[in-house]
Backbone:
């Protein structure tokens, strides 16, 4: 097995834009985007309250057992399209593309085979041609399907299996991947958490859509790392990695420090963590964590301290039911981060909108979804109105639902004189 430090260059974060979930439920002052700043001396426009329960629901014929959703502009028309991986009939490991024609989503006629145990999906411009590419990882193999975008909604497909020796009796096993520039060379790499070998593995990109044949072991983890995510945890401008370890009941955080990676472990969790999201929850500029814990009807909150230390908050976020895949974002654009998640049992999205005092004592607003048991979701501004929209994929139900934000439901919007 090859173990190596990464090259001696600064690390940068180049993420391919996957968020997760919906919009909030309070009256807000609209945050101004870079292309709609008010003239000097004027006040922001007050817009109508965002009501998640009245979000427009658009249903699409999808796949079952959906475990990956990406929103990105695959056909270069300025609107974000959708890619999902799941099962089509008896065929597992299929990729479906929905092209967004100004909020009318047309599914491509044929799905693409992306491996029978496809478990992770990420987007990036791997070959620097200005078109969005896709990478699919496998649950049961350290191999990847590479889909180089042509800028038309079509892709050139190839497969890649790096040369990596697992210990005797240890099998490849991963649940997702991230595609980021891990060494500051301007080229995106593949990073995955291997659940049986308890390692974070990096496959270095070459900048032309291909990858180095031998992966690097970034760090060891706790027992059975689950989904990995990437963020700048300590605020030094370098990408770090976070993964919950479901069998040891802790969280591994791999901090990038110039030429080396430092691993810290967050312990003291009440239950084993299967889902995690990161963001600043209390406005102190520190990155915090939200955890979904098996058997819990609430989310745990870990508040960041000094960039490399986390403390359990004195409160949990009450859910009242089993929710999974938590995400953090400012869904109502009021300057405070909110939390959202999906519930298969409730067939719903839950949205926790932060109050002036944050998320303490905040109950969720439920958005019921007809005919779908969502187990994964993603957020992007699909209709280009500045508000995040929600995409949820079913497990047993072959459906995808898009929840368009409230602003898109109003025929007239406030206009600045």
Residues:
């Amino acid at each position: 097995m090859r173990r190596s430090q990464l090259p001696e260059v600064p690390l940068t974060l180049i993420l391919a834009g996957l968020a997760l979930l919906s919009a909030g439920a309070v009256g807000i002052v609209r945050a101004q985007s870079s292309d709609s700043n008010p003239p000097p001396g004027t006040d922001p426009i007050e817009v109508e309250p965002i009501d998640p329960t009245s979000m427009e629901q658009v249903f699409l014929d999808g796949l079952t057992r959906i475990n990956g959703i990406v929103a990105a502009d695959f056909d270069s028309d300025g609107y974000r399209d959708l890619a999902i991986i799941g099962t089509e009939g008896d065929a597992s490991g299929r990729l479906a593309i929905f092209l967004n024609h100004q909020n009318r989503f047309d599914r491509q006629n044929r799905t693409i085979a992306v491996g029978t145990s496809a478990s992770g999906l990420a987007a990036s411009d791997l070959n620097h041609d200005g078109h969005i590419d896709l990478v699919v990882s496998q649950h049961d193999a350290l191999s990847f399907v590479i889909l180089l975008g042509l800028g038309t909604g079509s892709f050139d497909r190839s497969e890649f299996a790096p040369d990596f020796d697992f210990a005797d009796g240890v099998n490849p096993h991963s649940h997702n991947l991230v595609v980021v520039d891990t060494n500051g060379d301007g080229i995106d790499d593949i990073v995955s958490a291997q659940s049986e070998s308890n390692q974070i593995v990096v496959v270095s990109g070459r900048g032309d859509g291909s990858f180095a044949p031998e992966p690097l072991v970034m760090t060891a983890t706790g027992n059975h790392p689950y989904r990995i995510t990437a963020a700048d945890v300590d605020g030094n401008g370098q990408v770090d990695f976070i993964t919950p370890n479901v069998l040891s009941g802790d969280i591994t955080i791999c901090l990038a420090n110039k030429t080396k990676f430092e691993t810290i472990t967050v312990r003291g969790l009440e239950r084993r963590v299967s889902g995690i999201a990161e963001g600043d929850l209390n406005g102190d500029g520190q990155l915090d964590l939200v955890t979904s814990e098996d058997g819990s009807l609430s989310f745990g909150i870990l508040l960041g301290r000094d960039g490399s230390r986390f403390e359990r908050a004195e409160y949990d976020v009450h859910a009242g039911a089993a929710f999974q895949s938590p995400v953090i974002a400012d869904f109502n654009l009021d300057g405070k981060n909110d939390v959202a998640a999906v519930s298969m049992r409730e067939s719903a999205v839950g949205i926790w909108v932060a109050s002036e005092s944050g998320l303490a004592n905040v109950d969720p607003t439920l958005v019921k979804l007809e005919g779908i048991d969502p187990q994964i979701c993603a957020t992007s501004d699909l209709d280009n109105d500045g508000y995040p929209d929600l995409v949820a994929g079913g497990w047993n139900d072959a459906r995808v639902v898009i929840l368009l934000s409230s602003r898109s439901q109003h025929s007239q919007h406030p206009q600045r004189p």
